[in-house]
Amino acid sequence: xxxxxxxxxxxxxxxxxxxxxxxxxxxxxxxxxxxxxxxxxxxxxxxxxxxxxxxxxxxxxxxxxxxxxxxxxxxxxxxxxxxxxxxxxxxxxxxxxxxxxxxxxxxxxxx
Length: 111
Hints:
By secondary structure, the protein is an alpha/beta fold. It has helices at 3-11, 22-32, 45-55, 71-81, 96-105; strands at residues 14-18, 38-42, 59-63, 86-90, 109-110.
């Protein structure tokens, strides 16, 4: 699949990006804007879950360690609603247990 083909596919998808650090959220959000059909952003797992349930985006990109609800708990709840949703975990921490738990909940990618 060429980069152009990937771009066309992403153009047709909606993305939920969940990150508690505002500067990171805004920077990554700015990069994602224009690459996907709709971009939704949340500052914690609870807000992310609420947005997911309201809009059902195709892809979820989330941090793990966040206030109110962590990313893995949010992903578990989302996967109950839609087991096929694509989820990408982003984290600054190198934690083997979190990687294993991410695999167990059905995360597509772990960065």
